[in-house]
Amino acid sequence: MNLYPAIDILEGSAVRLVKGDFDAKKVYDEDPLDAARGWTAEGAKYLHVVDLDGAKTGAPVNLEHLRRIAGELGVPVQYGGGLRSDAAIAAAFEAGAQRVILGTAAFTQAGLLEQALQEHGPERVLVSVDVRGGHVTTAGWTETTEITTEAVVGSLEERGARNLVFTNVDRDGMLEGPDLEEVRAVAKAVGGSLIYSGGIGGLADLEGLAALGEHSLEGVIVGKALYERRFTVAEAQAALGR
Q1: What CA–CA distance (Å, rounded) separates 24 from 185?
Q2: pLDDT for residue 16
Q3: Catalytic annotation on 86?
């Protein structure tokens, strides 16, 4: 499994939220490039960048930070937040994203996901399935729908999206570990690849995910635990078998 250190950008800084609450933020780096540089200096092979401002407003706000991170550090960056139009998706790729992550728009804007998959390919377009209380959330985790996890995974497969990012919002930022059985169930339902996010607090959590042995479980996104120095990038990669 691959490790994806998270750089969540809000109001120009690298922050972490608790359960997706924008009012419960902690700033870790005033410059997101510094945060990203720190992870790559420790050996990170990939980065996960989220434009939280974009997720709230519905259009990318922090593309210049993406451009700096992708341009200077030379590692693959996946980018999400506010990508709700063809133009926004194209702008993210132009700014240096190797892969984009569609969230709200994949569920609310007819045809956008299909067009993105056709134009850029399923390997470069991921869909974020963010779940709170067993139901999908949208609009930067501010709105919860009636759609269940199982229903949305099946629907996305039918629409051609094979590579997903799954986040348990209730666990995000809590450092209390993932629900391994939930992750196993989602991984078994995914025909392509799955990246997990939410609640990683220690190396045992990473080892538990790796021990599931699910072929589709390709990686894990880690934010707060790295920022709080619960473990290093190298230790995380070793726990994941990398």
Answers
A1: 30
A2: 81
A3: no
